[in-house]
Amino acid sequence: MREPGLEIDAISKRYGDVVALREMTFSVRPGELFGFVGSNGAGKTTTMRIALGVLSADSGAVRWAGEPVTHETRRHIGYMPEERGLYPKMKVAEQLTYLARLHGMSAVDARASAARWAERLGVAARRDDEVQKLSLGNQQRVQLAAALVHEPRILVLDEPFSGLDPVAVDVMSQVLSEKAAEGVPVVFSSHQLDLVERLCDRVGIVRSGQMVADGTVAELRAGGAVRLLVDAPEAPDGWADALPGVKVLGREGTVTEVELGEGADDQAVLRAALATGPVREFARKQPSLTELFRSVVTQEVAA
């Protein structure tokens, strides 16, 4: 097993009668991209702020490499807040250099790193412009550069892809993958679940301040309900409605999608389809991360 990276161990946080986090627990190993997803208000930002020391937990612990996270450790974390934290009247290069210096870099190294990341993220031509004069997309690029400029050993990013055009999304995706390849643990939240599914090694789904699902997309799929696609061109509408434990999710043309409940038999579905005539396709459907996420949210509403 690899060296432990960033560990969030049973942290809880309450604001009066509102419970923001309930023993939130997960870990991000070195070199791993971890997608942190959940509905608005689920506790993602609170968790990240506690990891950074911006907030204190009521209980639980945050560790790096098996040791409690300290002020010194936090100097090596690259953080990108959802509500952007740049100085609007500072020039891009000046700001990146200043932030690198705050994290302990020498003046020479800070200027070099600021220039390198401005070039890498496509804002080098705007290095002498005030941040407030940039487009929102370019401000987002500068914000990522601010998280990277001090060469962090951990990356914690809150909605880093928000507001970016497709080209900028590709650039940022490549940068995060490169940092992970260097051994940096990367955790980021996003509502763009197709992007999370494509980029991340593991995904954690948060609900009401708790981690309710954690694993690779394949592992999360394995724990979900089985879905079938049945192409039966002569089957009448409603042919599967009465099958025990079977929920019809929809029909498009001659293809019916069904979900099997506990104890339901896929062979019973096949027999019912064959009873209507020929069956051109009978296959399991792999749910997307978006569908898995909706399933978890539906469970929350139904609970």
From TrEMBL:
InterPro entries: AAA+_ATPase, ABC_transporter-like_ATP-bd, ABC_transporter-like_CS, DrrA1/2-like_C, P-loop_NTPase
Pfam name, any one: DrrA1-3_C
GO molecular function: ATP binding
Superkingdom of the organism of origin: Bacteria
Gene3D superfamilies: P-loop containing nucleotide triphosphate hydrolases
Domain ABC transporter: 6-233
Keywords: ATP-binding, Nucleotide-binding, Transport
Family indicated by similarity: Belongs to the ABC transporter superfamily.
Protein's name according to its UniProt entry: ABC transporter ATP-binding protein
Originating species: Amycolatopsis samaneae
